[in-house]
Amino acid sequence: MRIPAHSVCTAIRDDIVAGVYERGGRLTEELLARRYGVSRVPVREALRTLEAEGFVVTRRHAGACVAEPTEQEAADLLEMRTLLEPLGASRAAQRRTEAHLKVLRGLVRLGQERARRGNSEDLRSLGGWFHETLAQASGSPALTSMLTQLRHKIAWMYAVESPVNPVESWTEHGAIVDAVARGDGERARAITALHTERSLSVHRLRFGSGGDRAERVRNSQHPVNMPSLRH
């Protein structure tokens, strides 16, 4: 495999998320450089970035290794997401562009169509694209970057099942976009908070004995006072 040097970090991160490299496994510069067809310099830079992001740790006598997050660290990520995604939606209601709205509405139409057909694989990718676009619409590069990193790490630590009712999930997506289009930041925040909280139930930890950890995080959240989606 030969990839551009500036893409090495993305490639290694994607392979860590996909499980190509086991938790705790060594990441040697020489082998990574050979795998991705680059010199050791971009590999070294990528490992430093991934260490700052929490995917890699440097151990004495072992060098760079894939991180081994604890159950509590994994649970913290879900809780951070329940706080930051509503904030992003609220900001998007004030800062979104017509281009953002066009993409969001198109994704909602596709998502609702696929949900009725029961195509779970398409829904997973569409959902990721929806939340990425919503974050970008916040107009905050820092917040967008944090949410993107959270999604990567959550995908690494959790297996995500299909929602019990995908049609309802995409109805919530549509309600978020309606609120964002109207510039109603409080409603966008409230609907996104409910939507994010509900999504916790489909997350299953990939490691450790705490397979119900996401459920415990959900139960620890304060209840969301949610107005009806029908107005």
TrEMBL record:
It comes from the Bacteria. Transmembrane segments: none annotated. InterPro entries: GntR_C, TF_FadR/GntR_C, Tscrpt_reg_HTH_GntR, WH-like_DNA-bd_sf, WH_DNA-bd_sf. Keywords: DNA-binding, Transcription, Transcription regulation. Residues 2-69 form the HTH gntR-type domain. The keyword ATP-binding does not apply. The keyword Transcription applies. SMART domains: FCD, HTH_GNTR. PANTHER family: GLUCONATE OPERON TRANSCRIPTIONAL REPRESSOR, TRANSCRIPTIONAL REGULATOR, GNTR FAMILY. This is GntR family transcriptional regulator.
